[in-house]
Amino acid sequence: MWRSNYKACLLILLLSMSACKSSNQAEKEADCRIETLQIRTSLSGERDPNLQSAQTFEDLNQPYIDLGYTDRTIWIKLQSKPFAAEKKCYMVLEWPTLTNVDFFLETDAGNWNLYGQAGAVLERSKWKVAWLDYPSIPLLRNKEILVRINTRSLVRIPFFILSEEEVRNKTNDRTMYTSFYAGFMLAICLFSLFFFFTLKDQIYLWYGGYIFFVTMNFSLMYSSAPRILLSETPYWLNHGFFFSQALTLFFGVAFFREFVDLRSYYPRFDKIAIAILIFAALSSIASVLSDWNQLFSGVFSLIYMIWIPAFLIVTIRMLIQGQKHLLTFVITWGTFYSAAFVYILWITRVLQPNPIYFYLPVWALPLEVIFFAASIYERYKSIDSRRKILEIEMKTAVDRLSEFSLKPEKSQPSDGKTSKYIRSKIHNTNVNAILGEIERLFTQEMIFKEENLSLATLATRLELNPHQLSEICNTQLNTTFPRLLSYYRIQHSIHLLKEKSEWNILEIAYESGFGSKAAFNAEFKRITGQTPKQFRIFELT
């Protein structure tokens, strides 16, 4: 009896082990995995799969193809491990600008025939797997596939071996995340445009353009939506990436110039920024009209590697010099552009391939956007503070001039304010009379209208030398001659903006003593916190 029970238990145990083994085998067969994966390159003109298949290949032991910028033809041999008959497996090349991919199957006669195509230069309808937004190769059970890649873009291509279910889930997740991302960025763009039209401040236009084109660039690189919407227009899809990259550079540099006031603090460096703006504008046009993808990628990478750290160093230096409103800007833009700089190092193959480097700028950009409002607030607070200090300084100077204009006959000896001048030049001068004459020249003769008026020319009219006049302005008026001159010119221009509504900005600039519209706009904004156009609009409303 016990022997029969023993035999029954043993039989059940063996059947269970067999079932587990079958289950494990079925699970293994259900997975999409690669058994053979090899790579080689040939000259760009060597495109015959029958010749190349017989050549020596090397094992590819990493989940990416890393060859940098190359004109050579890339060949890959791959064969999957057995998988269930009802299952579909794919090799997905996650690189949107991959130009052209052809894959071949070997016939019974030993020839390699075209099996399918994909790539950025082909309409989506011509892809072997048209529903996937990246170039993909459908794997076949127990069959070797030969892949030929020719591309003008960077060859640092991550790839994945996935089932159809995994691919669809990954695509759906990417579409959802990128849609939220794009919606958030679009909202920031709309806010920027709203503030631009409301406040008439150009800085919001530059920032809105920058956010729009960097989002467009990221969408073309990472998002599924553009490749779905523009699936039958590969030319614009492919060239749009470099077009948006050029305009991202343009609006980013323009915003930086305006935000830190590069013209005032670093005029020489500002000329370099202007040169970059010109290059970016021309590149945006050329990127649409030409196929120089490799050239654009290399040049843009070089420019970003230079200007990102250079501009950040300039900003930090200004922060150290007392521009406290730049602190938030340094933290936020510093974080984003540090991520972008790491990405550039990854592109140029300084860093080893890693998906983190590829996605780093995308993760860092929202942080920069979130703190943008704080940066703008700090900037306006700083501008308003400087403007109020300057206004008090000028009012004090003008009031002091008015006092002396009423009593020009009295003389006033120099006081302790001249102690900083070791050898004062005004001990034997009638300071009160000079101050009264300055007031008369500015208020009655309006000599500030003279475009070429300088410290030297005014000193000559007052029968002084420039050092004496400079000392009088500093010690008696607590200001400098250029500030005093600008103040009178701006006050006159404000009067004209209110009274001469038919005059344009350039006419008012010339009538107020400025030699150009640009100089007038910059000085007007420095003193009033607004541009002449903004002032006129708000005055009329």
Automatic annotation (TrEMBL):
The keyword Transmembrane applies. One of its GO terms (molecular function) is DNA-binding transcription factor activity. Keywords: DNA-binding, Membrane, Signal, Transcription, Transcription regulation, Transmembrane, Transmembrane helix. The chain crosses the membrane at residues 176-197, 204-222, 242-260, 272-289, 295-314, 326-346, 358-377. PROSITE patterns: HTH_ARAC_FAMILY_1, HTH_ARAC_FAMILY_2, PROKAR_LIPOPROTEIN. Coiled coil: none annotated. It comes from the Bacteria. Residues 1-25 form the signal peptide. Residues 432-538 form the HTH araC/xylS-type domain. This is Helix-turn-helix domain-containing protein.
